[in-house]
# Entry
Amino acid sequence: MEITTPDTLGSWQTDPQVLDAELERAYQYGMDARGEGRVATYIPELARADEDAFGIAVMTKDGTTICRGDASTRFTIQSVSKVVSLAMALKRFGSQEVFSRVLMEPSGDSFSSIIKLDTVSNLPYNPLINAGAMQMIGLLATECGFDDLLDYTRRMCMDDDIDLNEAVYQSETDTGDRNRAIAYLLKSKDVLPADPEEVLDLYFKMCSLNVNAVSLAGLGLTLANDGQNPLTGEHLLSPRNTRCVNSIMFTCGMYDRSGEFGVRVGIPSKSGVGGGITCSVRGRLGIGSYGPALDDRGNSVAGFAALEYLSRALHLHAFDYHPYIEDGAEA
Ligand code: GLN
# Structure
């Protein structure tokens, strides 16, 4: 993708018009990319999504929310919920207990892969693949029920309207044999903290929560703000645990495309096969997007393209350089 961007460094923070104009351009990049992807069909209910849909929302610390396109369309959170499960497990059990149940390495394999779990390691590679998320949900299941997880999700996303999509939940339950295989493999290794059927049911429910791009911007903003809701002041996760979540999102959040996303976009993010992406721009912004046409790894193609544009235009990359350095510094 050829991207030409104006030098907006700094000005967007004080000038909402700049943010608004750049979001419009990002939206157009996303719209142009939609045709390169396909909606997920392996969960039959997800196949009903509109492949042409795309929306994006940006939220700033003063609560300003700017949206484009289908930003209020509801869809299921899917793997973005793994961020919430990780955060809640860290909050309730602490990092020592959490990382005695899961590793913190990118797997390089697809999100539902079983191969390394069977042949290389007794513990899942990270909490953002299916096996790792089940470990987190297993821990949580020893103390909490679905209502507690739903409540925490709503608060992390700053969205009280998040609820269960019964049709998707049913569809996941009916077709989730691969996830059953993962849960029972974990049980066979004696590492799953709770009963596999209980874990699977909670896992399917967490994947089936209805969110929109604005909810995912809210989640990103909480994580960008050291775990505190900047509007209410509520502390939802300690700064240390928030740093941990952002780090794992950076290295593992975009499935087996996390490395490429890290280079091209450079923002801690998490995608889901429902088409959602949440991004946490440290100390500055939360971004959420919805585009159900996915690449071959399960990431929204429109979301990826729009975020790449925004990252470049607004200098959001974690390792960004000052634009002046670019002149004549070819080496
Ligand atoms: N519910 C989906 C599954 O378990 C979530 C996967 C995803 O979003 N990558 O297959």
In short: The first helix runs from residue 11 to 14. The chain has two domains: 11-79+209-317, 80-206.
